[in-house]
Amino acid sequence: MENSMTKPQPVIDADSIQFWEGCKNNQLLIQKCLNCSKHIFYPRIVCPHCTSEKIEWIESSGKGKIYSFTIARRPGGPAFKAEVPYAVALVDLEEGVRIMSNIINTDVDQIKCEQEVEVVFVKNGEITYPMFQPAANS
Amino acid sequence: MSIKRSAAIVGVGDVELENGKVAGGKSVLQIQAIAAKRALDDAGLTKDDVDGMFVAGLWGLPGVGSFPSVVMSEYLGINPKFTDSTQIGGSAFEAHVGHAAAAIKAGLCEVALILYGSTQRSEKSRSLAGRPPTLTAQYETPFGLPSPAGSYAMAANRHMHEYGTTAEDLAEIAVATRKWAQLNPDAMMKDSLTINDVLNSPMICDPLHLLDCCLVTDGAGALVIVSPDRVKDCRKKPVWVLGQGESHSHWSIQAMPDLTVTSAAISGKTAFEMAGVTHDEIDFVQIYDSFTITVLLTLESLGFCKRGEGGDFVKNQRTAPGGDFPMNTNGGGLSYAHPGMYGIFLLIEAVRQLRNECGERQVQDAKIGLVNGTGGTLSSTSVVILGRD
Hints:
Chain B: This is Thiolase. Chain A is mainly beta and 138 residues long.
């Protein structure tokens, strides 16, 4: 049985392998449709805007704004018990896609909607996660 | 072509709970069978009349629970001509009503049974934590978002940011709903509740407090829905399906286009247009209340008030007994019961109101009611408008 104290690790698949590999190299990779030019997250085999299969990977600037967030006062599973309170947010990247992650390196009670943030990579076991911290210039 | 008045609900059934649990340690199959029997008795029909089966659930997954309409048909000894295990979360049963009415209208079945049950409280199985994050969950679960409260909390935070909605506004909903529960002998939570009680309850996921969140209970419910030709065979007066709509905007909360608008904007519009009624003609509403914010967003999305005005709309206990907008008259998921996928209980309460069976909590002279189900993380919605003769 899985140890309930082990944080849930992504089960990497054919859609996501480049994304998680990118994180390992400290690159936030997202997709861009070559047909309609829109950006895509999470990664897919067809564009959700136009169903084109002509999709390329690009590196995001890693800069964005917090669309919304919550502070978990109770853990999202036993493995997160030691970390409460922690912030989970939806970040709107400059490229126009939204990604869920944690906001770290800040006092959680100072976090606000529309706050500018930047990506920071955090290694945990085999997986490197894209997380966000307040932008250096803000 | 529309399904307006092409089918009527003629039977409802549920099971007793003791402190939110089914009595006697009954299994999830047993309580569904009891609810089904009661709904059929209520209608004056038997299981041999049933030729359409509509079942959704979270039990037995992975395994037999992947085939809920098949398993429950076997358990009850039913061989349907129409089968539907549509699973879109808490709104599944409002969708089932529409699907059943469409199947009846098309002549594919005449007597449909809609069924749900859960023993999640007895089994302490509500938490979704511990499942490996596969497919779309891999982009969310590793970040520890408490599910589902965290997603609803993010919606609440965004609504507060855009419109200045307050925690007090949300608490109004919890308090009004509790007042209805106090009139319902079957409700789990009957202690009096104030806005300060809600605000002083432990924070779960900012800005949602414990008392902004629904209960975790067991429960089972069933509906029998028949063609106009079969209505005359039934014991109870029909409650007609006047309109129904369904939609979904996303699965992962990350993909919800606007955290302040649910797809009830679409499912509600479809249902209102089909029914040919206006908002002013609705005598009561049963709005899925997984969280207080779910209600506020849904009222706006359904067009009962403008976007951003939900807080003002529910102020001064407007939705409580005696207010001019009766809502969640059984005490809701917040104070009556919430067995995982609550949508069927919204329909059962609406039918009882339209039959004038609600005793102390009866909405006087109720003729038309609106039911909204919401499933997933604000993901799916279905709206049913019901009316009596």
